């Protein structure tokens, strides 16, 4: 186990300690250069990542306070079970389901099941997917006829719930949702378009576009990363081979197109100059996804290639962007809106921390 990974893990645990002392009753969202958090009262779409980090810290250290923090913040998410937002998948997968899977925590299990069952009621059988919903956060186009690749990962919450509560219909909805997003968002060459509009009455695809990319035809870095992660996670929970194939196809595209330092610019098609923003959050998502893909591959040379790409990506993040305080900076939240374009982002921190837990042997890549 290289010392660089263990040292980075320890640094991020210190940042978790600092964050736990700083945030009081509101969820950390993104932080400035001083490490001061901008928070959200209800968790927005990112609220699951902070308790998720606490669940992982409890796993990595056996520290009782991290598990206590995780459950406290999971309880704060409970009202979001009935919010009309597709991002309940993110909220309850990381915020509560991790506690059920890693610790068999009954309270976390109950919260996660509540989130899953309520979200399942919004499935559109004509479209074969879950729409973004009328209360989906931060998107410029929301409602019952909009979809996004960001939501594929969250569908794994339903697969877990199907197993945990013996409700197999939830698994079927999740599988259909993920497969429909291949049509919506995955291009033939393995690049990804973030979003799609469809007719809620017929399910017909109307257009592809992006909420946050450079143009509707460009490849926004985080969309590429979400696709890799979403299909890798769906494969590990369902065993469906086509999901692994999609994840690998998207991963191969990323590896070919990412800059030499392995840290993506905010959009792969954005003009590159001295001031072009990178996005460490997209890159951290990718690192976690590559570890999952590598763990799932049977072909030894390909597994070795993808694992090496994952380790190299994490090293570059540590060397260039993880500071002595355990802060992963230069995440680009929304370039279009000019919001937090070079900041610490809670989801970027979560996924780097998850990757480090895997690389230090604290967590199996396919466990969550």
Fold blueprint:
Layout: H1 3-22, E1 27-31, E2 37-40, H2 49-61, H3 64-77, H4 88-103, H5 106-120, E3 146-148, H6 156-164, H7 168-185, E4 195-198, E5 205-209, H8 221-238, H9 241-257, H10 280-296, H11 300-321, E6 344-345, H12 346-359
Antiparallel strand pairs: 1-2, 1-6, 3-4, 4-5
Helix pairs in contact: 1-12, 2-3, 2-4, 2-12, 3-4, 4-5, 4-6, 5-6, 6-7, 8-9, 8-10, 9-10, 10-11, 10-12
Features:
Glycosyltransferase, single chain, mainly alpha, 6% strand, three-stranded antiparallel sheet, 12 helices, 368 residues
Notes on the protein architecture:
The structure is a single chain. The chain is mainly α and 368 residues long. The chain has a single domain, classed as Glycosyltransferase (Alpha/alpha barrel), CATH 1.50.10.10. It is 52% helix and 6% strand. It contains 12 helices and 6 strands. The strands form 2 sheets. A 3-stranded antiparallel sheet has the order 2-1-6. It has a 3-stranded antiparallel sheet with strand order 3-4-5, with helices on one face. Helix 2 (49-61) packs antiparallel against helix 3 and helix 10 (280-296) runs antiparallel to helix 11 (300-321). It starts with a helix and ends in a 9-residue tail after the last helix. The mean pLDDT is 96.
